[in-house]
């Protein structure tokens, strides 16, 4: 089965986020004083082929742990959606 | 009212994603031949104070257009959730 995965990688709450601070400061300069707590993370989409949803989840856990996230400073979570039709000719 | 916004910024489908290609190639080397169509985007969380959900959405549209996304090559979308209790002392 083919699954579409949406993976979110975010900095742990205790870790400083200089990019988020920079964006918040930029927004203040643009007049948006009402925006706070800006945190910037990664959003990854991919297609994974596996025997079952459980197998796909297990593989994604390893992939996130080893490649996509630095688990010392980052958290991750993901959502899986089964792709019903073979999407070989996507434009 | 305070709203928690989750913003997703992704490359338009027609734009090449070298980082995604690099991740896919890395996964192949790790033995994950079953992963395809890797695309890497940004995930931004923030808190916005506005009079109504509609007002928050309008402000976020401008913020995304002007600062968070490059609309020539990127798409964005966001989700808003109302924060019911004042969360001033988040740890």
Automatic annotation (TrEMBL), chains A, B:
The entry's keywords: ATP-binding, Cytoplasm, Ligase, Nucleotide-binding, Purine biosynthesis
Enzyme Commission (EC) number: 6.3.5.3
InterPro entries linked: PurS (IPR003850), PurS-like_sf (IPR036604)
Catalytically driven reaction(s): N(2)-formyl-N(1)-(5-phospho-beta-D-ribosyl)glycinamide + L-glutamine + ATP + H2O = 2-formamido-N(1)-(5-O-phospho-beta-D-ribosyl)acetamidine + L-glutamate + ADP + phosphate + H(+)
Domain of life: Bacteria
Top EC class, one word: ligase
GO molecular function, one term: phosphoribosylformylglycinamidine synthase activity
Subcellular location: Cytoplasm
Pathway: Purine metabolism; IMP biosynthesis via de novo pathway; 5-amino-1-(5-phospho-D-ribosyl)imidazole from N(2)-formyl-N(1)-(5-phospho-D-ribosyl)glycinamide: step 1/2
Function, in words: Part of the phosphoribosylformylglycinamidine synthase complex involved in the purines biosynthetic pathway. Catalyzes the ATP-dependent conversion of formylglycinamide ribonucleotide (FGAR) and glutamine to yield formylglycinamidine ribonucleotide (FGAM) and glutamate. The FGAM synthase complex is composed of three subunits. PurQ produces an ammonia molecule by converting glutamine to glutamate. PurL transfers the ammonia molecule to FGAR to form FGAM in an ATP-dependent manner.
Family: Belongs to the PurS family.
Subunit structure of this chain's protein: Part of the FGAM synthase complex composed of 1 PurL, 1 PurQ and 2 PurS subunits.
The name this protein goes by in its record: Phosphoribosylformylglycinamidine synthase subunit PurS
Species classification: Bacteria, Bacillati, Cyanobacteriota, Cyanophyceae, Oscillatoriophycideae
Gene from which this protein is expressed: purS
